[in-house]
Amino acid sequence: MSGVGAWIRYGGPISPEQLDFAAQHYRAAILQPWETAAAADLKRRRPDMTVLCYKCLSSTRSYEPGPIHSSGVSYAEAPDRWFARRLDGERIEWARYGGHWQMTVWSPEYRERWVRNVVAELRDSPFDGVMADNDVFDDYYGLDLPIRHARTMADFRDGAGELVHAAGTALNEVGKILVPNIAESRREPGRWASHAAYGGGFEEVWLGFSPVDLFDPETTEAQLPQADGPGLSILRVPTDGDDDHPNVEYGLAAFWIFGAGRGAYSATAHDDYSRTQHTAQLDWDLGAPVQDPVRRGHTWWREFTHGWAAVNFNADRRRRRRVRVPRGMVDVRGRAAGSHLVLQPRRGVVLRRG
Question: I want to staple 352 with a disulfide (CB 3.0 to 4.6 A). Which of 101, 307, 315, 327 is the partner?
Answer without folding.
Answer: 307
